Amino acid sequence: MLEVKNLKTYFFYDDKIIPAVDEVSFSLEEGSILGMVGESGCGKTMTALSITRLLPSRNCKIAEGSIVFNGIDLASLPEDELRKKRGSEISYVFQEPATSLNPVLRIEEQMKEVIFLHRKDIAAAKRDAFIVEQLTEVGIRNAQKKVKCFPHQLSGGEKQRVMIAMAMVTRPKLLIADEPTTALDVTIQAQIIVLLQELRQKFGVSILFISHDINVIGELADCVAVMYAGQIVEYAKAERLMRQPQHPYTQGLFECLPGAWAVKRSRLNVLCGEVPKAGCFPQGCRFHPRCPKVFDRCRKEMPALARQKENQEVRCWLYSGSEI
User: Fold this and answer.
1) In what order do the strands lie in the sheet with 231-237?
2) Mean pLDDT over residues 252-278, rounded?
3) pLDDT grade for 323, boundaries at 50, 70 and 90
4) Contact 149, 159 (CB under 8 A)
5) Structural domain containing residue 212
6) Which of 124, 134, 284, 321 is exposed most, by the fewest CB atoms within 10 A?
7) For residues 214, 215, 216 and 222, what is the CA-based torsion angle, rounded to 10 degrees?
């Protein structure tokens, strides 16, 4: 349903070119969930914004690549045609529900706007009942009362559910969820994960789920793309990646977590250093300054994404295989 090939999104400033997303390729099957994981600054959100072409500034452009959605390349689609797909066939749940909702409008007013723009088939007389039905469907209790509330009168979990309800009003084919569980406590996180699974099963919606929590990704996703410094460094079925991560960065993420992957020690492992800023990427493999397994070739040459067993793809000189 969605196939991204060799996507490059760059910032252009005078004579300087800054790569934010660099040679990213992945596919998303109909009705499946793709998890995208990595630290802050790895390019996850920029990849999602590139798919919808909601880029943050005029200086930011898709320089190369294709984004084929149901046979149509969104990267080259005229803006007026793209608007017909955004919000109707493709919906986006942004990272912070508190900042996505208008603080001076009641919930019902904000949901009516979505219905007015994208669901002409719902008569005005039926909109109130439809809104209550949608909020109930995403697990908001006493929805008939909550539609009259302003966003500040709702809890964090309720705001996120409202955002998901608004996104699902149009029955989209693709839902992009950008860290929808980040600001929520653990029990609410679990409820949102269950909700997304239920929506996938009920409506057949495909989901691109972005998170920095690899445990959440492993629980929800069918496939996982691990991003680092604007690139995908590992791509595999979720079960395979959770069982046998191969890239040193992916292994490092697991070793930072308590649980089966954590060696019994008084302190958890730490990934030293930080993600390099776009425009300041090192020569060779972009992870090599932080990699515990680095050797000379890593510092000089950029590895390609190479296919391993069970179609697991890894961008690392430690592994041999055919280049993708």
Assistant:
1) 90-93, 174-178, 206-211, 33-37, 223-228, 231-237, 313-314, 306-307
2) 76
3) very low
4) no
5) 2-89+170-314
6) 124
7) 80
